[in-house]
Write a structure and sequence with these properties.
Mean pLDDT: 86
Distance between the termini: 49 Å
Strand content: under 5%
Low-confidence stretches: none
Shape: elongated
Structural class: mainly alpha
């Protein structure tokens, strides 16, 4: 795909998403849903990082 077409398409998608988040045009509360999704994602990210450190610590004990 053409690099300029990719940049323009990316900008359009970002602008439409931000517009839908700020103005709530369809009454779907997309901003609240996005924040709830991110909060859940942050929790899972912290859990997985903790498990990674546990596995690395156990691996160091064996070696």
């Amino acid at each position: 795909m053409n690099k300029w077409l990719e940049i323009i398409l990316g900008l359009i998608l970002v602008i439409v998403a931000i517009y839908a988040w700020i103005t709530n045009p369809w009454g779907l509360n997309l901003g609240e849903a996005a924040l709830a999704f991110l909060k859940g994602g942050i929790v899972w990210f912290v859990i997985l990082i903790g498990l990674l450190f546990l596995m690395l610590g156990i691996s160091d004990l064996k070696g």
